[in-house]
């Protein structure tokens, strides 16, 4: 199989009540992400996808969403994926991370999912 398998952990999170989306993105990108990146030794990529609701032609305005960001943790390999998943689903983050999260998130909103992606090299398709 020529396709590359990518293991990811997705974190769905809501900003803390009363925080604007602009302030949320600013804090996440300038303070929280750099703090977490220092301790992300087994990651290949650390992505944040900030959500902006859009109007749908059949259902109307998007309105307030359940989450404001989808954070993607791309693991270097399956062993790193399994280790990180075990940690995230069984342990509380260190106190300094939790304290920083309180400045940013509605921590009760946190959801974790996993994804295994198979990417096809389209340049090789002929």
Structure description:
With 126 residues, this protein is an alpha+beta fold. It has one domain (4-54, 63-117): Alpha-Beta Plaits, CATH 3.30.70. Helices cover 29% and strands 33% of the residues. The protein contains 3 helices and 4 strands. It has helices at 21-37, 78-88, 95-102; strands at residues 4-15, 43-50, 69-75, 105-119. A 4-stranded antiparallel β-sheet has the order 2-3-1-4.
Characteristics:
single chain; 126 residues; alpha+beta; 29% helix; globular
Summarize the structure in short.
This protein is α+β, with helices and mostly antiparallel strands. It has a single domain (4-54, 63-117), classed as Alpha-Beta Plaits. Helix content is 29%, strand content 33%.
